[in-house]
Design brief:
Elements: H1 12-22, H2 25-32, H3 39-50, E1 68-70, E2 73-75, E3 79-81, H4 94-105, E4 109-111, H5 119-126, E5 130-134, H6 140-153, E6 157-161, H7 171-176, H8 186-193, H9 196-205, H10 229-238, E7 242-248, H11 251-259, E8 264-267, H12 281-292, E9 298-300, H13 307-316, E10 320-323, H14 325-356, H15 388-395
Parallel strand pairs: 3-10, 4-5, 5-6, 6-7, 7-8, 8-9, 9-10
Antiparallel strand pairs: 1-2
Bound molecules: flavin mononucleotide (FMN).
Amino acid sequence: MRRLGDRRVFSSADARALAARRLPRLVFDFIDGAAGSELAPERNCRALADVLLQPRVLGNVGQRTIAKSILGQAFDVPFGIAPMGMCGLATAGADNLLAEAALERNMPICLSSAASMSIEDLRRIAGDHAWFQLYAMPTPDQTMALVNRARAAGYQNLILTVDVPQVARRLRDVRNGFEAPFRMGPRQLLDFAMHPAWSLPMWRHGRPNPVNLDNNRFDRNASRAGANWAFLDQLRDLWSGNLIVKGVMSIPDALRIRDAGADAIWVSNHGGRQLAAAPATSDVLPAIRAAVGQDYPLIFDSGVRSGEDVVKALALGADFVMLGRPLLFALGANGATGLAGLLDEFAQEISTVMAQIGVCDAAGIGSVNLFSGPPGHDGSETESTAPVSLTERHVG
Ligand SMILES: Cc1cc2nc3c(=O)[nH]c(=O)nc-3n(C[C@H](O)[C@H](O)[C@H](O)COP(=O)(O)O)c2cc1C
């Protein structure tokens, strides 16, 4: 068993195990928890684990690049930081650490409506790397106030999250009495007291609050059903930058969103935090790719736990991949060092996996890199024939 002092993070599993020991139970459960039976996060991971890549040999793979572009922006890696409300709970100053990592590594960072850093501060620190994620607020005025602030601050990319019409019942949060801001009862105080490595720096730094919302209060249970088709049309008219719609899992929805003028769709089931019976994102991605066409921008998340998973998502049809829980656990495990360690591992693994599948440029990863059947089955070298059967398996 690894000692708590030995906090090097080599994998998402390391990060989670170390964070489980360092974070108060209430905080760990907030990050780790999911809707209802909590089966969806495991389903996401298992489905990605079942995807196989086609090894290739003797190619000229000495020089490789994992750089990738999305929506006209060139990044050094094919992944970014998904929006996560109250991510400041992972460790003292987490928002700053994520923003600095995004800037240093040239990758996008998405600021949640419920983040504990202001819209303006993130844009100041991370510049064009900063994307803003919008929830429909209880009133249209509150929603538009966020959109206007994002525009005034200079954001180019606005993400409308549509898979939280009502926040799901997450039983761990209910049992733990998790609220934002905290309700400090004796049970929570004991939890914090038993985790001083988290609590003391957090005490010094100050409690993270949803600073972009009225009175720094985020009513997690308020309806967000204001995000409907009419609102999407209205937002499209008002927002001249890139509009990305996050939380899409169905082909009819994807087609209608594309036709409403969204610039990109983000295939996601919110990491299983909204619907326990949701299919795995990697099971729906190939069908959504086939429906929206080869050139339409698709972003992907939910269940990505390694660089190899990133490659798989790209092979299944994603243009770009976002990371969620593992980054918060890495921060919780060992702050900036934990985060840097995990991001390094992701980047290195993407590059080494590319070498194994005979790819030099991450932009070239596609369905041809999926394993399509037993050896000898993929005798054809053409991109159009080999991968089809596996794609169908994952859709079906
Ligand atoms: C603690 C936490 C808070 C989140 N808050 C938001 C949010 O405010 N807005 C949003 O669009 N998604 C939110 N998400 C979902 C993530 O953006 C992402 O879709 C999800 O984490 C991907 O699943 P994974 O972490 O299992 O890979 C949150 C996820 C977590 C873990």
